[in-house]
Amino acid sequence: MLTTMELSGQLAQDVSSTDDSDVGLRAVAALRALNEQLERLQVDDARAMGWSWQEIATRLGVTKQTVHRKHRRRIGKP
Q1: Is 38 domain-assigned?
Q2: Do 47 and 75 contact (CB within 8 A), yes or no?
Q3: Domain assignment present for 42
Q4: Contact 55, 46 (CB under 8 A)
Q5: 23-33 per-position pLDDT tens digit
Q6: Is 26 within 8 Å of 33 (Cβ atoms)?
Q7: Which residues contact 68 (CB under 8 A, 6 or more apart)?
Q8: What is the mean pLDDT of residues 33-49?
Q9: CA 74 – CA 40 distance, rounded (Å)
């Protein structure tokens, strides 16, 4: 079983693959899914700690409306 660091290293290697577009594209998709999962976890934690939607949006580099629309149903309103 790969550790998180090994998996990250493998994804980084795969995403830059110029020999096999299938490998590269699959790596991009895996990174996209990982990014979404990490964002969900961090937004959940921030909201649990009392962060406002605006504070979260600022850190993510998006508008408050964007982050609220994306996460409000899953988290609910305080």
Answers
A1: yes
A2: yes
A3: yes
A4: yes
A5: 888 888 988 99
A6: no
A7: 53, 57
A8: 94
A9: 9
